[in-house]
């Protein structure tokens, strides 16, 4: 069965479904044995069932099927020797082949994972591309760990032994489908219909166009925090108001768009990892697949001149989203139509024009990363999304910490905005983010908000009144 994010992928008129990938380029100063690598890839693909999936479409119906581990070509691994080339020539060849492989995955026949090992003059480069339908950010961490562990085990004359397997992606999707018609899921409908009833004003545009264009129209502006400020954000800000990083990043986003648009309600599609603890009897901690959750949320910016109050308001709004937003996709894409269920409003609601996703820290996986065989490579992985695929959002904002620095990428349509407009937007985002970091790191005591308590239905103002009253009595 398809999960909500997979159904969204096929139901949206995105086009070019075959080419929607995620990829990595890794390097090693030690030469990699292609035969050993082949053995490890075979074990990885057998171990993680999602990597053997194919997707067959008949008219409007898409079915997902597993390929047997006995089939041939569950993955493809090529080898290329450029060790006699100059380093520049080798890199040119590697990047050209990587881009070509991005176009080579086949949803209906498979495989949905391809790799290529390149011998450059000074090191080996390993390129891996996987269709996004079967992988996400958390999955990549699992896969790269398994590749590393499996390779080292074979070199040490051991049999490959991965960590214990958690429940399959197929089991997770089946359980979500069952849950979609249970009372717990349906109880969330009122919450999401409240969002669907809110009017969304269009974003300002430099050059108004009818739609958001295609991937080939996309351009990027990157905002980078210094290592010092990134460390302050990660380690010294959350104590002030019992926040998480997303609370601070989204507060800065809300303040930025409030200043730009003049609107106090900022509609944003928030992306999460989707591995929520909905079921006590299912373990997906080491399951590979596309678990991503995307849900709409409104950032209410009505105390822009009071950073502490505004941050608490954004934090409490996010805490009140049921089950970290997983129910939105379940109700919109899985729950069966019933006369008694008002699903139409939710299913026809326009999603936000802004998308936000903080991917986390990609340099925290191992403190002894220098001891790993495979390191991140600076070479390009090529075009991960087909140039003629339709853009899903007007502004797509993604953040991650890599090499000790937070980088926020503002992706936009060049036919809607000038580079100067987005550069100014990114600069304002940095301005508000630094203001919030300074504010939070300057607080010596922790200030609580209603969602810090079991009974969390008070407003921030009501909680402040109670706190002041109790403080007065204590004095």
Give me a quick take on this structure.
By secondary structure, this protein is of the alpha+beta class.
Index terms:
13 strands; alpha+beta; 475 residues
Mean pLDDT value? 93
The helix count comes to 14
Oligomer: single chain
Main sheet specs: 6 strands, mixed
User: N-to-C terminal Cα separation, in Å?
Assistant: 61 Å
Judging from the principal axes of the Cα atoms, what is the shape? globular
What low-confidence regions span 5 or more consecutive residues with pLDDT below 50? Answer: none
State the share of residues found in helices, binned by percent: 25-40%
Order of helices and strands: HEHEEEHEEHHHHEHHEEHHHEEEEHH
Strand order of the largest sheet: 7-13-12-10-8-9
Secondary structure class reads alpha+beta
Strand content: 15-25%
| Tally of strands | 13
Radius of gyration: 24 Å
Notes on the protein architecture:
- This protein is of the alpha+beta class.
- The chain is built from 14 helices and 13 strands.
- The chain has a 6-stranded mixed beta sheet with strand order 7-13-12-10-8-9. The protein has a 5-stranded mixed beta sheet with strand order 4-5-6-1-11, with helices on both faces. It has a two-stranded antiparallel sheet with strand order 2-3.
- β5 (113-119) and β6 (124-131) form a beta hairpin.
- α8 packs across α13 (419-441), α9 crosses α10 (307-319) and α9 (245-261) crosses α13.
- The model has no long low-confidence stretch (mean pLDDT 93).
